Amino acid sequence: MLKSLSVRVLIALVAGLALGAAVAAYGGAGLKGFVEGVESIGTLWLNGLRMTVVPLLFSVLVVGIASVADAAATGKLAVKALLWFLVLLLVGCAWTIAFGYGFYGLFPVSEAGAAALTAGAPPPPPEVQQTPSFGEFIKALAPTNPIRSAADDAILPLVFFAGFFAFAVTRLPDARRAALTEFFDTLSQAMVQIVRWVLWAAPVGVFALTLGVGLRAGVGAVGIIGHYIVAVVLAQLGITLFAYLLAVAVARIPLGQWARALAPVQVTAFATQSSIACLPAMIEQSRDALKVPDRVTGLVLPLAVSVFKMTSPVANIGVAIFVANVYGIEPQPMQWLAAVIIALAVSVASVGLPGQVSFFMSTGPICLALGLPLELLPILIAVEVIPDIFRTLGNVTGDMAVTAILAKDAEPDPAVDADVKPALG
Predict the structure, then answer these.
(1) Residue 81 belongs to what H/E stretch?
(2) Is residue 424 situated within a structural domain?
(3) What is the spatial distance between Cα 96 and Cα 319, in angstroms, rounded to a whole number?
(4) What average pLDDT score do residues 56-67 get?
(5) DSSP state string for 224-276
(6) Nearest to 209 by CA among 361, 377, 50, 370
(7) Is the whole-model pTM more than 0.85?
C-alpha cells in the first residue's frame, strides 16, 4: 500500500496537519518558528511544480490540438463525435459554475477555517479584483509578446497563441508537421518527467506545507478539505447523471439495459482510475450489450479516450471555485469566460497524462487565469485520489453515451463492420 504515491501523500497530509496542530497547542515560540522555517521546503517543492506549467501546457496543447485536427480529417463520424465532445464539455463548464454558486451559497466555506488555511499563503494579485470589459477581454486574447505572457503567467493569451500555432502546424507539409509535433511531444514528455521527479518528493513537500497549515488552522483544516471533496464529487456525479439522461433520452436505450451495460465498465473504472484501461470493456459492452456497430465502437471509443474527458472541466473548475471561495473572491463573467476557454483547452491537452501531473497542469492554469494563488493545490493533490475515482467513472460514462448516440442513426454495413476492428490500445 505504501508503494502508492497517493497513499504516501495522504499520510503526509494527515501527519503534517496533526503535528502542526500539536505544535500550535503545546509548542513554544522556538518550535513554532522552526515549523514556519520548514514551510520554505514546501514552497520550494511547489515552485518545482509551477516551473513546468507553462512549457508543459504549451507543448501538450500543440500536440493535443494537432491530434484533434487529424481526427476531424478522418470522416463525418469523427467530426460528429468531436462536436458531441465539445458540447458536453461546454455543458460541464456551465453546470459546474452554476452548481458551485448554488452549493457554496447553501454550504459556505467557514470564514475562520478559510482565514486559517490561507494565513501563510500570499494574497491574490490586486488585478483579480478588476473587472475587464468585453472589449478589454477581446484585445487581451492575442499576446503582443507570447514569451512575456508566459513569464507573467498570462495563461489565456498563451493558450490563444498555442491554438493558432497548433493549427498552423497542421497545415505544414507532412514531414515538417511530423517533426514539429514530435518535438513538442518530446518536450511534453521531458516536462512530465520533471514533474514525476518533483512528485517523488511530494510526501515531503505536502508534509512541509501542511505542517504550517496545521500550525495555523489546527484540525479545523480537515473540515475544509472534506468540504472540498464533497463539492467536487457532487459536481462530477451531476454531469455523470446527465450522461445517463442522454443515453436514455437521446440514444433511446432503456435505463435497465444501459445500467447493466455500463456496470462492468464502471467497476473497472473504480478499480483502475484509468479510462484507457477501461477501453476494452467499453468496446465489448457497447458492441455486445448495446449492439453498437463495430465501425462506431472502433472509431468513437478510442477517439474519446484520446481527446475527451467529460469530467475534466467539471473537476478542474470545481477546484478553482473552491479556491475562490476560500479566498473570498467572486470572479466576474469575463474572468469566468477566460477560465472556461482554458478549461476546454486543458481538457484536451491533459488526456493521457499521469493523474497527479494532470491535476496540477489542468487546475493551475485555470486558477492563474482567475488570479488565484496556487498554494492550496498541493494540499488538494493529497486528497485527489477520491475525486479521481469519480472523474474516471464520469469519463467512461460519457464515452459510452456519445458512442450510443452516434450509433442510433448509423445504418448497418456488414462489409464495413467486417473490416473495422475495435482498437484496444
Answers:
(1) helix 76-106
(2) no
(3) 10
(4) 83
(5) HHHHHHHHHHHHHHHHHHHHHHHHHHTS---HHHHHHHHHHHHHHHHHH--HH
(6) 377
(7) no
Cell of 224: 475544509
Confidence at residue 395, expressed as pLDDT on a 0 to 100 scale: 92
Contact (CB, 8 A) for 5 and 202: yes
- DSSP, collapsed to helix, strand or coil, labels residue 153 as coil
**Distance between CA atoms of residues 293 and 398, nearest Å:** 18
Range of the domain at 158: 5-419
CATH number of the domain to which 305 belongs: 1.10.3860
Domains: count for the chain: 1
Q: Give the model's confidence band at 419: pLDDT under 50 very low, under 70 low, under 90 confident, else very high.
A: very low
Sign of CA dihedral 360, 364, 367, 371: positive
Residue 396 lies in a domain: yes
* Domain assignment of residue 425, yes or no: no
Q: Which of 114-118, 208-212, 363-367 has the lowest mean pLDDT?
A: 114-118
Indicate whether 140 belongs to any domain.
Answer: yes
- Judged by average pLDDT, the poorest of 2-6, 159-163, 239-243 is 2-6
Tell me, what DSSP letter sits at residue 132?
-
Q: What average pLDDT score do residues 123-139 get?
A: 62
pLDDT tier for residue 220 given thresholds of 50, 70 and 90: low
Give the torsion sign (CA, 245, 345, 160, 62).
negative
